[in-house]
Task: structure prediction
Amino acid sequence: MDRLLLANAPTLMGDTKLVASASSDVTAASEIPHSARRGRTVLRWTFSLALIAGLLWLAARTVDLHAFGEALRAADLRFVALASLVAVTLCMIPCSMRLWLLVRPLPTPKAGVGFWSMTSIYLASSAAHHLLPAPAAEVLRTVHLKRRYGYTVGGLVAAQVVEKVIDALGLGLEIGVVAAVATLPAAMGYSLYLFAVAGAGGAIAVMVIGWRYQARERADGYGLMHQVRGFLGTLHEGMYLLRSPRIWAYSLVCSFVNDFANAATVGLALAAVGVALPIPSWFIIVLVARLAGLLPSTPGQFGVVEAGLVIAMGVLGVDHGRALAVAILYHLAHFVPVTAIGLWELRRQWREVS
Result:
């Protein structure tokens, strides 16, 4: 596979020209006026606090707190422990392998990052994602890979943009299969078909646009159209640097393994509370958790993810008290081990750099 990656990598000089323009987008945030950045921060926290207050009010009105407490007390923590093990291994390792596959072809004057080193970086950045506002994970990965291994900022941004596109494509395909085989309420079935078409079709459309996009001289600015042009330019560069079909196929397989493992942790959290749902429903819960995690909220997305899962499981026939218990156990099974191991890896990396 190494020969394949090297054979499809452009020359260092050509890559330097390609990623130079992408680097300007990474530093564009520093050119945004202070008042605009401050306004975005205030808006983000106002929205987050209002959302959390609304969720607490909704929980107090709809969740049977006695049933919730009983479900937590009776939960079989062996299933939660197994879910934690799956989360930190079968969920995280395919994600780090996907990013490693996408970073390996990038030009660097130093020795490229190894797979286990990338896994360490991915765990550390995931801990940052859990504890800090977005995009802490992407920033930490980019800074560490640049300083330690010499990759260009533009190339790393391009690889991570392509990673998001592949992730969306994989999830869209999976949800399409779930909508086709599962017995669901009509409204939910139509919604899943719509998401599958929008997710997979949107990802394919973005890939086509990114491949055909002709980058122009990028003027200074920070408006919406400037950001769109910058995104398309970066995606185009990533599509060129990572144009090997085999790299895309391997990366898509990694996304499938991650999503199947994530669905397994949902099944284990359900089993811990004694709730039985068919396997296709596990993927629906994963989808809702992923979508809820996109909303701007507190670090770790606590509250938002639980609310989304309670609503989804309510539609699937689970009472809200037990659904909240499942949601909290599922969230903790991912949050606690990944954050703990990620912080350990981050501390170790700092020691090595210093």
Remarks:
- Confidence is low (pLDDT under 50) at residues 1-32.
- The chain has one domain: 2-353.
- The two ends are 33 Å apart (CA to CA).
- DSSP finds 14 helices and no strands in the chain.
